[in-house]
Specification:
single chain, 136 residues, alpha+beta, Alpha-Beta Plaits, 4-stranded mixed β-sheet
Amino acid sequence: MAQNITETAVAQNGKTTIVDPVVAKIAGIAAREVPGVHALGGGAARVIGNIREAVGAKDYGQGVRVEVGETEVAADISIVVDYPEELQRVANGVRTAVAEAITDLVGMKVAEINVTIVDVYIPGEDDDAETEARVQ
């Protein structure tokens, strides 16, 4: 029992630092879990993310930029929404999910969460372009 008191006392005398990429990863995971979110990040970020994923290195913070202060976090998140989802509903869902994850897992207040919808994913649109050749 005395050992638990010592461990608690030692833990209270230190400082915990959570770096931006850790918070970005947590925010990215939370945002991806929202129904209607197809992907995170703009075109170039998604291409690089797909290349990294092909070699087994998934970037969970892709499309997420955060600023971590002493007690607050601000986040900017870029998303691609599945068609025909309601864009405002999906953006609000991302905002809520990310705020809850930052509050619950990181233990910090959320100053703001800005969501930018960079594209709408239409199923089959990319598949048709790949299968139809213009010339043979």
